[in-house]
UniProtKB/TrEMBL annotation:
GO terms for molecular function: protein histidine kinase activity. Its main location: membrane. It is found in: Cell membrane. Coiled coil: none annotated. It comes from the Bacteria. The lineage of its organism: Bacteria, Bacillati, Actinomycetota, Actinomycetes, Kitasatosporales. SMART domains: HATPase_c (SM00387), PAS (SM00091). CDD domains: PAS. It catalyses: ATP + protein L-histidine = ADP + protein N-phospho-L-histidine. This is histidine kinase. Its EC number is 2.7.13.3. It is an enzyme of class 2 (transferase). Residues 335-520 form the Histidine kinase domain.
């Protein structure tokens, strides 16, 4: 009759654990009996050595040995017998350098030479052995007896009664078998309890079912469009789905490595490792704006989910730009209304020549301002941004100037990145200052942007912190979070291989400088070289 292996997990585990427990108990019993003889020998000898060392350390023993004569009623015999009774030793023999006994359980032996060779102990070495003496078989130890100067003045020999090892082994076998049977029973009961708990945990599933569930989990994790990252208690990656690899720019080989080994230091790594607490934390990693949530697991690790908010953030910034454009149009509308009222008043007063001069002056001034920007910044997106920001600054009662050193040809590779950088810097300056100066300059294929203001400036100890995601002194708007503008500026600069820094402005305020290498094309530079 063929015996079928059970299909359910708990039944397989139960049978396996019972078999393993039986084998382990039998193996341990055999391994315990085999070296028991040696262990009993060593244990008895070490006990004798410990008693001998304790006896030799008695402070008055050396003095009594060197200042009295050996006798059954002497102080050496009394001290040795006291220690023997306290420790349960078979005998404690104290001898001088001649090998003459000063103490012994059999008092007639006091004053006679010892029956075994004491030369090893009198030479300064400790020994342990199993031997037969005048009191029968014993485990004995001998140690030298030294005075305060370290000179050997005698030796101490201690013996412990020791029965036949074979007899003791035979006597222990029934007890060992009893304990082995109890251990086996306990192991079987424990295996049954574990199997029942495993049955509840696995809902009676078979290993094939569990394997199928794991395959489905892997397929689900790698198909969802939300990044999932699992970390163990030591901060090492143990799961990384495809979206997480894309957002963090990691490879499957990153599994098993610590986050500090695969991600650059910064806020992103701090958020993922749990150094920053909170829900829906904003961070910038590899040039992407991410929302992170971290959920600890029972084993000390954590599962981190990441959502890509880069496009949403760009839309939010486009919305800000639209609001800025609306503000600029509103300011121009207000300004045009005032000018029309002025023009109407001049016409009603009959001052037609003054009205003509006023219209020409306004038209020429507006045209001259726009043309000045367009001549220095030929890129239409950047020049339009500067014109719009100038109108917004005027509406807020601030002044935005273009530096005389500004000269940027129409050779920008990706003007959208420069618009993001310049727009963020100008917006930050408009929030705190009334005078802003913008400088855009080409140095070969490198673009240098500099925005200075007369605001309160940035303290030296905060000049790195302000480029950190989430750091801001302003209230967040409803549609997006604060603390990302300068972080995006630095990330864009680093992506181009450049830098973003802040310093102090002469006379008070701050100067933000961004260097963006390889943002201008060599071919177009050659074409406009004569203009520069």
């Amino acid at each position: 009759m063929r015996i079928h292996w059970p299909r359910r997990v708990f039944a397989q585990v139960l049978l396996t654990q019972v078999a393993i427990t039986t084998g382990v108990v039998m193996l341990v019993t055999g391994l315990f009996l085999a070296p028991l003889s040696h262990q009993l020998d060593d244990q008895a000898m070490r006990q004798a050595l410990s008693i001998a060392q304790t006896t030799a350390a008695e402070p008055g023993l050396v003095h009594n040995l060197t200042s009295t004569e050996p006798s059954p009623g002497g102080p050496v015999q009394a001290e040795a017998e006291r220690i023997r009774r306290a420790t349960g030793a078979l005998y404690i023999v104290v001898m001088d350098t001649r090998g003459v006994r000063w103490s012994h359980t059999d008092t007639p032996q006091i004053g006679k030479h010892v029956s075994t060779d004491p030369s090893t102990a009198l030479a300064g070495r400790e020994i342990m052995q199993i031997d037969d003496g005048t009191l029968g078989r014993s485990a004995r130890a001998k140690v030298p007896l030294r005075d305060a100067h370290g000179t050997i003045v005698g030796a101490v020999s201690v013996g412990i009664a020791y029965d036949s090892v074979r007899e003791r082994l035979l006597g222990t076998i029934p007890g060992l078998l009893l304990y082995a049977g109890a251990a086996l029973a306990a192991g079987v009961l424990a295996a049954l309890a574990v199997s029942r708990r495993l049955q509840r945990s696995t809902h009676g599933l078979a290993f094939a079912d569990i394997s199928a569930l794991l395959d489905e989990r892997e397929a689900m994790l790698h198909s969802i469009r939300e990044a999932v990252l699992a970390l163990d208690a030591r901060g090492r990656i143990r799961l990384l789905n495809d979206e997480a690899q894309r957002l963090l720019e990691l490879t499957p080989d990153a599994v098993g490595h610590a986050l500090s080994e695969v991600l650059p230091p910064g806020r992103a790594a701090e958020v993922l490792t749990g150094q920053v607490d909170g829900v829906d934390l904003l961070t910038v990693c590899r040039g992407r704006v991410l929302i992170a949530n971290r959920m600890p697991t029972g084993d000390g690790g954590a599962v981190v989910t990441l959502r890509d908010r880069t496009e949403l953030e760009l839309l939010g910034r486009e919305l800000d730009s639209t609001h800025g454009l609306l503000d600029a149009l509103r300011a121009q509308d207000h300004e045009h209304a005032n000018r029309l009222h002025t023009l109407l008043g001049l016409l009603e007063l009959g001052r037609h020549e003054a009205a003509v001069e006023f219209v020409a002056e306004v038209a020429n001034g507006r045209r001259a301002s726009a043309e000045q920007v367009a001549e220095r910044v030929n890129d239409p997106l950047l020049s339009a941004l500067l014109v719009g920001k100038s109108a917004i600054a005027a509406e807020r009662g601030a002044s935005l100037h273009i530096s005389p050193n500004t000269m940027l040809p129409d050779v920008v590779v990706d003007p959208r990145d420069l618009v993001t950088v310049l727009g963020n810097l100008i917006d930050n300056a408009l929030d705190v200052a009334s005078l802003i100066e913008v400088e855009l300059r080409a140095e070969g294929t490198t673009t240098v942007l500099r925005v200075s203001d007369n605001g309160p400036g940035v303290a030296p100890d905060l000049r790195e912190q302000i480029f950190t995601e989430g750091w801001s002194t302003k209230v967040s708007p409803a549609h997006r979070g604060r603390g990302l503008g300068l972080a995006l500026v630095r990330r864009l600069a680093e992506r181009y291989g450049g830098v973003a820094r802040v310093g102090a402005r002469a006379g008070g305020g701050a100067v933000f400088t961004v260097v963006l290498p390889e943002t201008l094309t060599v071919r177009q530079l050659t074409e406009v070289g004569g203009v520069q």
